[in-house]
Design brief:
The protein is α/β, with parallel strands linked by helices. It has one domain: Rossmann fold, CATH 3.40.50. It has 6 helices and 7 strands, in the order βαβαβαβαβαββα. A 7-stranded mixed β-sheet has the order 3-2-1-4-5-6-7, with helices on both faces. Helix 1 packs parallel to helix 6. It is globular and about 45 Å long. Bound molecules: glycinamide ribonucleotide. Glycinamide ribonucleotide binds next to helix 1 and strand 5.
Length: 190
């Protein structure tokens, strides 16, 4: 019997963090397996990435459901069916509702491209550049019902003095991929 931690990754876009997590599982660097990808944008690149890994993907259009609770009920049923132990949000650009939060309390984590609590929400890097910050960073935190809120688990900072959002994203993504894998490893080894 496998003793690997069962993980689900939620994403809305490119899925480079999903890629980092799935490949760490495949390499054996993480004693875990990604059993499900959840994506609220059926056309997103992460859907194809999931296919390449042969990982089940539930992609849905929120507009096809009467409410957030309706689609989250469906998500919870899928997580339960697979025995998911840890939900990793990786660029999932939706606020998690009570249905999912109550079912998976304390088992949902998120990665955000700023040193929270600064620069919550979308375009965190652009917000930080606009502010003129010189120290950027990445945060991983438990998820609660607020936007990019919840207790912080890990943070990593990096210096940057230029004005290119593209460059900050590039550096930040590399930091994110490493930090997410390290943090998941700590959580599942507890
Ligand atoms: C990541 O940079 C993640 O921190 C951010 O979305 C990006 C997804 O990239 N999340 C947020 O901004 C959450 N508020 P990816 O699809 O390549 O993993």
């Amino acid at each position: 019997m496998s003793n690997k931690a069962k993980i689900a990754v939620f994403a809305s876009g490119v899925g480079s963090n999903f890629d980092a997590i799935a490949s760490a599982c495949k390499r054996g660097e993480l004693n875990a397996e990604v059993l499900l990808v959840v994506c609220d944008k059926p056309q997103a690149e992460v859907v194809n990435k999931a296919k390449q890994y042969d990982i089940e993907c539930f992609s849905f259009n929120p507009k096809d459901y009467a409410s957030k609770s309706d689609y989250e009920c469906e998500i919870v049923a899928r997580l339960d069916a697979l025995g998911i132990e840890l939900v990793c949000l990786a660029g999932y650009m939706r606020i998690v509702g009570d249905t999912l939060l109550n079912a998976y309390e304390g088992r949902i984590i998120n990665i955000h491209p700023s040193l929270l609590p600064a620069f919550r929400g979308a375009n965190a890097v652009e917000q930080a550049l606009e502010y003129g910050v010189k120290v950027f960073g990445v945060t991983i935190h438990y998820v609660d019902s607020s936007l990019d809120g919840g207790k912080i688990i890990a943070q990593r900072a990096f210096d940057y003095e230029g004005d290119s959002a593209e460059e900050v994203h590039r550096i930040g993504h590399a930091v994110e991929h490493k930090l997410y894998v390290e943090t998941i490893k700590k959580i599942i080894n507890r």
